[in-house]
């Protein structure tokens, strides 16, 4: 039956003409409810809630829908589409900046950094429902992928190395970083205030109001021109607020000149411009306890694994002070700060895993590291034979003073060239993105021993091998080939003889990968 506001109101009046006061009071509410239903507002809000990120704790989050699911759900419900592509930078900024404050979040990345940018969106932008954000890129493909999931993106300028991750301080790296200078300067000249964030950043809350407080944004007499994350002796160009002012525009014009005439990256240019314009600029450092660099958050606070010293006062953390994209991603994953479930990295119910521990310190660091390296090669070989992904153990570091990740020992970028798809981080099975059927699947703990070794603990299932120099693939398949549990759990894999693959070519290839994979890392993966 057709329905209208007028019919509904007339029925109320006809029922009781003495209730005019009630009709007058109820009428605005009725009209509002009707319009909300007709325009799909309620449906839109339901979608926003369903696609939200649920916070499980200070360092633990789980996401309801991946980017792909968001797009599918939107199509299914036929919600009116908003345009997320633009014909000009001015149009993009006008669309995305907050209409009242004129503040816009700008984040630059290219296809080489797409997974990191997606993680930034999921952990920080979507999670805290930040609407005034614009992703800026040098890659058409990058923007098309974001626009497909209804995230605003603008191709600011093309860059020849847009499709690969760039090495820190390389020419490509500096060129990409300088694009940030150009896009921020133009935004300032168009009248906007900018919160600029690198995509290797995680928010613990929306930082806007705290930045406004620190910068005295609403006090014309005290308001700052720039408020940046303080990073061990310098201001960090990866996270900062820049107010639209003559002084800040002068600062970015100076940085633009530096970008065009030197090979200096934008962070050095930023600090140089601050020094040269210190009489004109009002500069504020964001509080170090709340806005932390990677050095402060990970190293100084001794955080390596999820749950280590939860930061209850953190607002922003920049995952810097480490080299290579692979290492940054791994560090996020160990801390449960990675939500991008690419290729069902977490959510697969079909993939099978192999886990083991490193429980022993062998008297000195070098002997212990050698034993742990041998154990990892054994695990990778068994994983290859059984088609199981290896879950890395904790490693012993600094004369047994602490347990650490693989990052403290080996260059992950090199390791990944051989085994990038063959392993998961240590805290993988504690991550709530992993299905419960996987996390709770292990029934037995296995141990491989020679004929004379003592059983290390009660409750383990022992497989013994002869005193030989190798174990054949056929033996591994006989022992574990019929195991159906999602996780095959070993107590440890110390002193296991070399495992030989039955295909000679495959065995030679595996040995070659192992010879290349283990390159000793210096501090922060240098």
TrEMBL record:
Keywords: Membrane, Transmembrane, Transmembrane helix. One of its GO terms (cellular component) is Golgi apparatus. Residues 130-332 form the Nucleotide-diphospho-sugar transferase domain. The chain crosses the membrane at residues 21-41. GO terms for molecular function: glycosyltransferase activity. This is Nucleotide-diphospho-sugar transferase domain-containing protein. The lineage of its organism: Eukaryota, Metazoa, Spiralia, Lophotrochozoa, Annelida.
